[in-house]
């Protein structure tokens, strides 16, 4: 979780002071403690329980990859978080502003990365640490190994083990966190896509090969080595040099620093460049560390293994699914806020290219020797009814089932929206193209309908089968309706009475969360355009703490040139309309800027041009 990257200081047991309102019942005094590409993590106070909690709030939109990421982390944590060395999940849901969130135990001692950066050993607070660093590191590594092995036996690869994702509890216990990058064993990743955090990623992962148990073993051993040394095994001034060292150089020899030979041997085997030379399981790695503890006369750390059912049953699609009730009652969304690479550790373009070429070459070699057989009685629905939806607004997800009713295995190579209205359809979940479909098996594709115009809409979903020239098609039947200005409480007036929204809404963001939405409306009677802005409730609630006010500047104007209509308001306004702007020709845009009067922070959003 992101809160492992930066911890806001507080005293144990203190009550919450002034803070943000996240729009989550029972949570007050929220403070940002971490950020990432997918969300924000807050520390919040729950007065009913007299405890702090960590709340991870998704910043991205609900549909798409962000949703799958969030659902995956929720399902994984739900199955695994009773393990004593995995962070505890309390609940999940959506904020008042509609953002999905995970509410977890707040581990007040921050992350292992925090403690190592501060030069503090990861021991129980208040204890005197006189033992060598390897003792605590090996004990902590064995504890985390129990959590990681439990995840593996549940069918899940973590894929991002590192000091930043190991939290330290009040009692000094390590907790494995951030399952946002986790994947089921059965899910095949996109070829050439590198998902890892330098410098703890295994060499084969950085070459573009898929993650595996062996790569998780490497990452855990690399983390233990970092724990002992206080620094990663490899460092360099350039990314290219860092990648070269990870791929070629052996890990540092810790024997001169007083680390027992058996501990060093276990770490060296677990970080071997060749995955086949590493321990076959995390449990085997942990057992070798435990043997090293015995040989050194140290207490042997218990290896705690949880018992969980497989997260992804063999007869279900690889990608996790949620019922409609669970989606509406428990979820909002693609959430984890993991920062994928540390500072100055982005994989350069040449490295990404090498990884893609390696993966593509491997795929081509496989295709040449084992071409899939032709499809045999593959069934898809002829039509999918999605109903009527406001233009430019997204529907709920709809499922399309694909079933192999034949006697031979088939492989789907693509699922693509096509046709004159193909732009109205978006694939948000593809459980079909990642793996072959055995006889009798079914898979599922999830789509969202977003009509781009009014009236009947008939996009097609093309299901391409390897070895077959013509794709199977599903005819999607829906309709779009224009959004009237009355839906946004338009002021009275002839031009507003028949105004309808004409382009998609534009959004502004602050702190990774939506702050404002801007719409452009058009009146056929007046042949005039007008702008509308809404300041989202979550921002209003947060900005108002301490007496905050803001300035809203809204304009409807030509896309090129001067003129238009402008409306400004200050104080604590939450919505605003411009006067109608008569359009003589050309294109128009609506633009809004919200500026916080106390902090000076400003957010701007502009709609797409409309050329009526």
TrEMBL record:
SUPFAM superfamilies associated with the record: Protein kinase-like (PK-like)
Protein residues bound to ATP: 56
EC number: 2.7.11.1
Keyword field: ATP-binding, Kinase, Nucleotide-binding, Serine/threonine-protein kinase, Transferase
Stored Gene3D superfamilies: Immunoglobulins, Phosphorylase Kinase, domain 1, Transferase(Phosphotransferase) domain 1
Pfam families membership: Pkinase
Protein name: non-specific serine/threonine protein kinase
